Amino acid sequence: MRFLRPPARQVWAPAALVHEWLVPRALARATRDPVARKHRRVTAFQRRVLNPLTRALPFQTLLETTGRTSGLPRRTPIGGRRTGDEFWFVSEHGDRSQYVRNIRAQPRVRVRIAGRWHTGTAELLRQDDSRARLDKLPKMNSAAVRAVGTDLLTVRVDLDR
């Protein structure tokens, strides 16, 4: 691309350096795996906007895992349903979810249900039909999980008595 007028050349000269570096990388990233792209966008929005807001709500269901590297408690808003001494939910990103990775490293978790904390042991159920499981869970959350999910995975938490 050439600019014949001097003002355009003066403006474009420094911008071209950034442009030539940034555009090929942006195009390469845009053409990558669409599932990975969707996962990046959804998790960025959840991590920066949605989760901080919903964690503050007193009756939002939360899952507290232990960070696999830091050892610190990590709280994630989730949606699910308690059935007896079990709590069921579906991870929308499966093994890509940070809390699923934390569960694999340390399955002891806490779940805040209706404002009250419960301890338990989480189990990842790969053989379970996650889409059918969503039919048994709260409708609004299930719709959101279906809409933004990339790799559904059922999780059951066996609550302590």
Characterise the protein shown here:
The structure is a single chain. This protein has 161 residues and is an alpha+beta fold. Helix content is 43%, strand content 27%. The chain is built from five helices and seven strands.
The N- and C-terminal alpha carbons lie at a distance of: 71 Å
Characterize the biggest β-sheet.
Answer: 7 strands, antiparallel
* Helix and strand element order: HHEEEEHEEHHE
**Tally of extended strands?**
7
Overall, the morphology is elongated
What is the share of helical residues?
Answer: 40-55%
- Summed over residues and divided by their number, the pLDDT gives a mean of 89
Proportion of residues in extended strands? 25-35%
Notable traits:
5 helices; 43% helix
Structure in a nutshell:
This is Nitroreductase/quinone reductase family protein. With 161 residues, this protein is of the alpha+beta class.
Protein topology:
Layout: H1 6-30, H2 34-55, E1 62-66, E2 73-77, E3 80-83, E4 86-91, H3 98-105, E5 108-113, E6 116-125, H4 130-134, H5 139-148, E7 153-159
Antiparallel strand pairs: 1-2, 1-5, 3-4, 4-7, 5-6, 6-7
Pfam family, one: F420H2_quin_red
Protein name: Nitroreductase/quinone reductase family protein
InterPro entries: F420H2_quin_Rdtase, Split_barrel_FMN-bd
